[in-house]
Fold these 2 entries.
Entry 1:
Amino acid sequence: MKNIDETAEERHRAKMANRKAVQDAEVAEKTLEKGLLIVHTGPGKGKSTAAFGLALRMLGNNRRVGIVQFIKGAWSTGEQPALAVFGDRVVWHTMGEGFTWETQDLKRDIAAANKAWEKALELMADETIGLVILDELNIALRYDYLDLEKVVAAFQARRPDLHVVVTGRNAKPALIEAADLVTEMSLVKHHFKAGVKAQAGIEF
Amino acid sequence: MKNIDETAEERHRAKMANRKAVQDAEVAEKTLEKGLLIVHTGPGKGKSTAAFGLALRMLGNNRRVGIVQFIKGAWSTGEQPALAVFGDRVVWHTMGEGFTWETQDLKRDIAAANKAWEKALELMADETIGLVILDELNIALRYDYLDLEKVVAAFQARRPDLHVVVTGRNAKPALIEAADLVTEMSLVKHHFKAGVKAQAGIEF
């Protein structure tokens, strides 16, 4: 614990009072409520993980969550058994057959992506669902497995209170343009570079 | 669905086979298992959310999770009731008294941060716990509420299989230096700018 004199305390109080005034004014300006189109992109870790974190937050607010995995799915991840605890409050569709370099079959990849997109539309139409996570949709868009214009149009036509999260590297500019919230996860440092392998609870 | 000729398919197959070979070689090189020190920093959304997503992944792998919130805590978030479903597999300590501009009391902030750090050390010493999340610890370090050297030394002395996630903006360089995995969440676009307010399931 530091030794603090009265002056430092007073300075801190004044600075923080000022900060609070700015903060309160900013909060007061925001009055809209709307379902958000959220994009998690970039080369860093945390894109899907943060989407699943939002699922948790949504469940804690007593809303239902729908999830479609566009690419992953050839292996199991920890989120699925964990979210199973919430029963039918989570609807989970694993449509992908693994990364595209695993299947090496363009026709099959396109068919899988389109089937996954049908599921996405179904979940987005379900009024009991507050959040739809479209995991790795950006990959399907990047490889042109799905029509970008069709996808963006469906997002723009969604019901006003529905939140949608799209994850995956290399988000298309038209999707970023249509989104309300875009976060880029950048890689500052990665343990794979140091020879550490994928581990339970971290990568899957 | 596109009309694809044989050549395009063959090209796709060759490209993806090559990609798979690179991928497989990369995976084979990684043989280490170790508890990671993970840092989520940057001005974007998703730092805490991705940490809670990792908690979910860890729980799905049947590991226990410990959480200390250093700053937040003056209001409730959806994660807490959601994770309550997992019973004593999640240990949650909310030690902060709100953002520092809410308390405006330097001594109280320092005392709260040090109390939170004691809890963090307790969780890190608990061998039944696989992941410890120190939410907003970076804020406490930034304002010098805690001694940086002491904190980094404790991380370096942790047991080899323990994963630790530290969140918050402005991570200190010494912490980044000590970390295995650092992701910076950058703000590409934020709905607050468009006047949208904080909403249940998204911000809390």
Note: Helices of chain B lie at 6-29, 47-60, 79-83, 100-103, 106-125, 137-142, 148-156, 173-178.
Entry 2:
Amino acid sequence: MTWEILNVIGTIAFAVSGALVAIEEDYDLLGVFVLGLTTAFGGGLVRNLLIGIPVENVWKQDYLFAIAFVVITIVFILPNKWIGRWKKCVVFFDAIGLAAFAIQGANYAVSIKAPLIVVIIAATMTGAGGGMIRDVFAGRKPMIFRSEIYALWAALAGLSIGLGWISGPLSTFVLLTAIVLFRVLAVYFKWNLPQKKRSRKQL
Amino acid sequence: MTWEILNVIGTIAFAVSGALVAIEEDYDLLGVFVLGLTTAFGGGLVRNLLIGIPVENVWKQDYLFAIAFVVITIVFILPNKWIGRWKKCVVFFDAIGLAAFAIQGANYAVSIKAPLIVVIIAATMTGAGGGMIRDVFAGRKPMIFRSEIYALWAALAGLSIGLGWISGPLSTFVLLTAIVLFRVLAVYFKWNLPQKKRSRKQL
Amino acid sequence: MTWEILNVIGTIAFAVSGALVAIEEDYDLLGVFVLGLTTAFGGGLVRNLLIGIPVENVWKQDYLFAIAFVVITIVFILPNKWIGRWKKCVVFFDAIGLAAFAIQGANYAVSIKAPLIVVIIAATMTGAGGGMIRDVFAGRKPMIFRSEIYALWAALAGLSIGLGWISGPLSTFVLLTAIVLFRVLAVYFKWNLPQKKRSRKQL
């Protein structure tokens, strides 16, 4: 049940973020649909691969495709000034997708009794897949490698699930909200992690 | 039988398109072979993943590797003026690969009794995989996201198969030819789909 | 046994090469870990996909994650002048990963009695996966498509294994050392393969 809801939330969020990136890049009508669907189901594909769900199961989720279609259509026909107003739109929806799929990855790792470090990495990689696919296809450097702390929030989700702090739908929902909040705050306040100091091109 | 022929056609076409892109990018001898093989079998890998065929089965298709090798060798030794004459070569072979794998994706979706929208998306994503891998590895923006209508033809293949209009090898062959024709015409006449109007970088 | 050792060697080598590329690109602390882990386990994921090992098995290799973590941490805290001194560091560790995974791919292909050409291609593609993922995510053109002979060494590993010249851990280790040596020499002396002569952008 929780799995199913996270799946729907993550898929919708990645679909919206893909469609918004496509509009930013001036793709045409079909390009918006293709990048939206690729991001949503590409993210799910990476998650399925990493946690051993047969990839072709994706085609049995009819309702998810229908929802993604409707959502992308809404993004496409929304007046520009609405989208312009939510300057952080892509970041926001990407954060939701990241959080939803990261929690699924961590839950899977816990279910096979993986040690803590594996739970953390599973959360990070499962969550980051959709955004990576979107950014690579749009010819951008994946968000995860740009500054403003991205993977850390997924890793913290993995940590809290791995330590057994999260159980049941309610605390899962609180965790999801917290990850999205911290990610958006990190972008808003331009939080950054330490870098290894070196002059570029020195190596 | 039809599956096998489409597989051979799609693999050869993607091998040629990969080799041509590698020559365009001034890759060396091995680069041409590697991008040709990566495009051909990467496209098949994406298709296998999406429709649940074990990926490692690819290694059992000895004859396909042999054919791909011969085809890439021919592309490499062909005189430049021949290649120069067929300016649309990459587009043409890419279109054949797109059509062949799109039909396989749609047929699979129909075989599991997926609803129409799923058949259409399966056709598009299965068909687009090879070209996406080629373009990402060559550092280009994937064709599917550039203008001149790309995914639409794969989607229409999915629609016609999903509606049951296509049955038997003959109508499949007609459909394949029609997709390639429309795709080439779209590039030739620079057909475009509507874009969401907005000034770039406004978001 | 040999499999396990090659797995450890390849994973460590790709982890180091990913971390070094991330430092070169001025990624932050987490970026270095994410690109290191993505390269190491992405390479293993491609290998597992291609030779039919369930991808989710990756999460059962606890010790590998621990080793990769330690190794990336060491790379991060090493003084810059050390890294600067080994100018070919990325090339060197990438070559080790390439060689280790190429040998695994070739051994698998031999084990299913694939013909020689398939063994050669399996070696090349299995070996090249990690580096391709690293370079695509770092926004670089994959090493395999730049000059100075890359895929050839993996292909030769495939050839020697396919011909049955390599048996037992000792000769495998000699082969691995030879591939790394030739790759590094190729970069050092700027060996190149023939290119198809044509003026760029002519096509």
Note: Residues 2-188 of chain B form one domain.
